[in-house]
Write a structure and sequence with these properties.
Layout: H1 15-25, H2 27-30, H3 41-45, E1 54-64, E2 67-78, E3 82-87, E4 91-93, E5 99-101, E6 104-109, E7 114-119, E8 124-128, H4 130-136, E9 149-161, E10 164-174, E11 180-188, E12 194-203, E13 209-220, E14 236-238, H5 241-245
Parallel strand pairs: 8-14
Antiparallel strand pairs: 1-2, 1-13, 2-3, 3-6, 4-5, 6-7, 7-8, 9-10, 10-11, 11-12, 12-13
């Protein structure tokens, strides 16, 4: 899903060599006046892996004929290293007596490919697959879906949205399962093409039409405190959401919380 370009350290600067390398990588197009390369649309849609640090409010809305799902919260992002999304809407625990776990956040260490859901009110956390983390925040692209192909793309000019100067683009994207999605995205020039808003019209493999809208608002281009991305040592690790919801009564508790320890998150 993601293309991560890791710079290598050089002992000497070869301007001619660098120029050739950029040309081969297609970066010369990125350096045009817009700063946005339309051939890399799918990389911009994979916003978790864009090398920019920020704090922002976040809303993702998926609408289908049978209903609407809203995910909203607060995003904390440090480059391509760590991502945290506080989920205001909480997480629904499935089952006969379903319940909602509130005051939780998704923690995704991108380069380490590690992801967690943390529950400060219960001093608990679970380990999840990175693709499950993307599901919880309504991400459009997942590794399991394979690399999508861009069938059409169009530059729709510049537009200011959420206080950001953005290049507005439209694209038709085809996924390996043969489903297609029409995308409209607003890519911020000042944040390396970070998508301030993404609007997607899609059809499920069963042919059900729907829309998915992701919007970032109140954006602050800053580096969040690293402490936000750590799980307190006294938190208990559980196997799944059911164990967390039942405080270990359903399922096996994997550890015991040390006595007398103060909760680090309120």
């Amino acid at each position: 899903m993601a293309l991560l370009l890791t710079p290598q350290l050089c002992s000497a600067i070869d301007l001619e060599g660098i120029g050739k390398t950029l040309e081969k990588a297609g970066v010369s197009d990125v350096l045009k006046s817009s700063g946005i390369d339309l051939d890399r649309i799918t990389d911009y849609l994979d916003w978790e892996t864009i090398n920019v640090s920020l704090v922002s409010d976040f809303t993702n809305v998926t609408e289908l004929k049978r209903g609407k799902v809203v995910i909203d919260g607060r995003v904390y992002k440090i480059g391509i290293n760590s991502l945290r999304v506080d989920l205001k809407s909480g997480i629904e625990v499935p089952g006969r007596d379903s319940r909602r776990l509130t005051d939780c956040f998704v923690l995704y260490h991108i380069l380490k490919k590690q992801a967690f859901v943390v529950f400060p009110r219960k001093d608990a956390y679970i380990i999840i697959d990175p693709d499950e983390a993307r599901d919880l925040i309504g991400s459009l692209l997942k590794n399991r879906d394979g690399k999508p192909k861009i069938e059409k793309k169009e530059d729709l000019g510049m537009e200011v949205i959420e206080g950001q100067d953005c290049k507005k683009i439209a694209a038709l994207i085809k996924f390996p399962n043969n489903t297609k999605t029409n995308i409209m995205a607003w890519l911020s020039q000042g944040m390396k093409g970070f998508p301030v808003k993404i609007l997607a019209d899609f059809k499920t493999p069963q042919g059900i039409a729907g829309t998915n809208t992701t919007t970032f608002s109140n954006i602050e281009k800053t580096e969040p405190d690293e402490a936000l991305f750590a799980i307190p040592k006294d938190y208990v690790k559980y196997n799944n959401l059911v164990e967390v919801a039942s405080e270990g009564k359903l399922g096996s508790r994997l550890g015991k919380k040390p006595a007398g320890k103060r909760r680090l998150f309120q």
